[in-house]
Design a protein that fits this description.
It is a single chain. With 207 residues, the chain is mostly beta strands. The protein is 8% helix and 35% strand.
């Protein structure tokens, strides 16, 4: 082994012994202030040396309840062109009168028969008879589609994490919840153990 290789091994051993960086798995044992334990035999890591990443802080948006108020749709219809008249024809006819024949009997003799046969009356109701004009003019309908208010809400939107729905709390949809007691987290140990970066939560089982 030459001098270069010897020096390289010495540097590697020194860096390993210093433990400048290292990945650790911890469990959240308290919140407010935050405490994380990596070894039950050791004191918990306090909030003062814990640095949270975006993945472990709470994210939420307000429930977007809203309504649409639509004005200016009120209108009416004006209907024209319904004027018309009735022209009635075919009513002409005649009356045939029979049975008027009779005789007069007087003392001392009998007269001849009178009004025998059939007697037609003159034509009646001949020609065409127009009625008065009907439905002439303009007829407005009543207003339609006045102010219309529709309602809508996005409160039914639910975010899922690892197959489980995240809660909707106090009018907010939870996109990413904050750390809770019992959460397992991935830590990056830096500055020879003087600080820890909380990288993310760990899910041991994916449903």
């Amino acid at each position: 082994m030459n001098l270069t290789e010897t020096l390289y091994l010495m540097v590697q051993k020194s860096m390993k012994a210093a433990q400048l960086t290292d990945l650790r798995v911890g469990t959240v044992t308290a919140v407010g202030p935050l405490e994380i334990t990596t070894d039950p035999a050791m004191p918990p890591i306090k909030a003062g040396v814990l640095y949270l990443t975006e993945a472990v802080i709470e994210k939420k948006i307000p429930v977007l309840s809203h309504a649409h108020d639509v004005n200016g749709l009120s209108h009416s219809h004006s209907v024209t062109g319904l004027g018309h008249a009735h022209n009635t024809g075919g009513l002409d006819h005649t009356h045939g009168i029979t049975g008027l024949g009779h005789t007069h009997t007087i003392t001392g003799g009998t007269t001849e028969s009178a009004l025998d046969g059939s007697y037609a009356s003159a034509d009646a109701l001949g020609g065409s008879y127009p009625s008065d004009t009907q439905l002439a003019g303009s007829y407005p309908t009543t207003g339609a589609l006045g102010d219309v208010v529709s309602s809508s809400s996005l409160g039914s939107i639910v975010c899922y994490e690892n197959g489980k729905p995240l809660p909707v709390e106090n009018g907010y949809i939870i996109l990413n919840r904050a750390l809770e007691v019992g959460d397992k987290v991935l830590l990056l140990r830096v500055l020879s153990g003087q600080a820890f970066v909380v990288l993310s939560r760990i899910f041991e089982e994916v449903s």
